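Batch manifest, entry 17 of 40.
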Amino acid sequence: MKYILLTLLLPLFASAQTVHIKDDKIDYEETVSVKSGSKSALYNSAKAALMHSINSDGKAIITDAKKNDKIAACGSIKLSPDGVTVNKLLFTIEMKIKKDGYKYHIHKVHVVQYKSGVKISDISSEDLLEGMDSSGDTAAKTEKQLNEIDMDFQKIIALIKADMNGSK
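Output type: structure tokens
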């Protein structure tokens, strides 16, 4: 009986969102070790990795503090539309270079919605997460959007890690 119940519930657990949450906000943070020749080479790789991973046109760097071994960028990703509403994910990603690797932090996450090219709302990550407390259609839409956000952030993280590992 237990096995039948577990088998029936497994699809519910498999589709659960895995977005990272800290202080009731969407927040991704990790320290990654990299073996590199120099801190300067790591910094240059981090800058290139950010530019590559967030599909920027070169204007995304908001903080380039090589003296402090920090670099940051604002990113945006077009999410799946919801009917006629266009959803754009906006976020900040910061990297702190260390002698043996780096720490990344993705935060200040929010979704801006547009209809016919006009901004209609700006939804904070806290409000997005509150949608999971709803039931029915709202919770299902929120879970789908949070899953998409998590997949997008996981892709960015993977691209950064691949670029940074190439800095050896």
